[in-house]
Amino acid sequence: MLAPFYLVYATVQHIRADGTWTRPQFFLQPPDEIRPHAELLVQHLERALGYQPFPLELANEPVPGRCVYYYLKGGEPSLLDVLLDSDLGNLP
After folding, report:
1. Half-sphere exposure of 45 (CA within 13 A, CB side)
2. What is the Cα–Cα distance from 60 to 57, expressed in whole angstroms?
């Protein structure tokens, strides 16, 4: 474990009228409809495990020289891209 940090996030996708799915959207702040569930999770992580929230101001900090295989946006991947090592829109 690198540090006792946690990150609560949400991915949301919708079914279109034709039955196809939209590309998942990634949210660092959970949308209102799931916020109560996220808050329960946060309480447990902090009380039971003593974890602290990941500092969101560092989430988009560029990490020069790091290759992330799925990263196709151009420029340097962010700290969050590097730590999670998965396309943020595809996280479960």
Report:
1. 15
2. 7
